Amino acid sequence: MIDRRTFGKAMGLGTGAAAASLIGLPGAPAASAAPRTGATAPAGPAGAPGARTSFARLKQVEAGLLDVGYAEAGPRHGPVVICLHGWPYDIHSFVDVAPLLAARGYRVIVPYLRGHGTTRFLSPRTFRNAQQSAVALDIVALMDALKIDEAVLAGFDWGSRTADVIAALWPERVRALVSVSGYLVTDVEAQQRPLAPQAEYAWWYQYYFATERGRLAMEDRTRRNELCRLVWETVSPTWEFDDATFERTAAAFDNPDYAAIVIHNYRWRLGLADGERRYDRHEERLAARPSIAVPTVVLDAERDPFTAPDDSSYRDRFTGAYRHHTLKGIGHDLPQEAPAAFAGAVVEADRL
Q1: Which end of the chain is more exposed for a tag (fewer CB within 10 A), N or C?
Q2: Which residues contact 50 (CB under 8 A, 6 or more apart)?
Q3: Would strands 80-84 and 66-73 be described as parallel, antiparallel, or unpaired?
Q4: What is the pLDDT of residues 7-33, one digit of tens each?
């Protein structure tokens, strides 16, 4: 999930700005009213949470170290949007976003990140590494494999971090950026400094993953799904998702590398696991908190416990055209809870 830096000023759930009306699409809809348990609620109108339950079909392509699984929607020669999911989520966070953008003429690519879903490592000898620059280079390699020179990158959680890293290090590949929760580039050294207790409290799973018990829990399917569902309920308190919605995403956690990738990601961020030397030059640049000059829309979710009161802690990192919106009543999985608002932010960023 998101970087500890976002907690710099976050001590509660309040936010400073109201959500703006986003260009060309409706504003943020209310959270889904489907019950958490029991039968799946009927699909709502296009753009509403839960309007769709699946992508038409998945594709695979060899890219860099991976055989990447991804969904695709929209015209093949349209401007490209790459939507990047977080943890503990998968491509279904964008199942309602993709058709909205496709209807606008965008070619939408939604890949499973390494360790998720149908994405697999090409070699069993490759270290199961989840440091930020390695994950970012996966997406650059995917773009190369699909012959995409530039794209709008739009993500949340791990996806925001990945998009931010690419925008900072390879801006020529980024047409525009939508980053939920702001600037999420990780500074491992800064991670060593403690936060206020209330902020530390929300990161319980990060510390759990630093233990052998946490690793074993992630390798056990039942414990893993129980943990991930608890995170969903905690960080999206207004989203009344149903069993089927969670289970569709939980299928992506059955990837044989899932536990290794998740555990390495959180241990690496805390300085408890090494990365690979091949990425040192990128991590050295990222440790300096490089600015992002591409056109950017930042979305904050009011009910996400990781949302800062305002964007003052990261505003100076975005030096290009910039907009910031706070979505009232929305939690951490912003694109799945408010798909029309997320899709609208993509259109807005592309027009900045």
Answers
A1: C
A2: 32, 34, 41, 43, 44, 96, 241, 245
A3: unpaired
A4: 333 323 233 333 334 444 543 333 332
Whole-structure pTM value: 0.88
- Gap between the Cα atoms of 90 and 115, Å rounded: 11
pLDDT at 214: 97
The answer to whether the CB of 128 falls within 8 A of the CB of 261 is yes
Nearest Cα to Cα of residue 280 among 134, 135, 62:
134
Q: What local confidence, expressed as pLDDT, does residue 45 receive?
A: 52
Query: What's the chain's length in residues?
Result: 352
Q: Which residue has the tokens 């998720």?
A: 116
Token pair 């992508």 is at which residue? 55
Task: Give the pLDDT mean for 140-150.
Answer: 98
3-state SS, residue 296: strand
Supply the DSSP string of 33-102, one letter for each residue. ---SSSSPPPP-STTSTTS----S-EEEEEETTEEEEEEEES-TTSPEEEEE--TT--GGGGTTHHHHHH
Cβ neighbours around 288 below 10 Å, total: 10
- Residue 261 corresponds to which amino acid? I
Choose among 328, 321, 310, 327: nearest CA to 348.
Answer: 321
CB 346 within 8 A of CB 24: no
Angle CA 307–313–318, to nearest 5? 105
For residue 314, what are the CA distances in angstroms to 3, 135, 191, 200, 322?
12, 22, 16, 20, 12
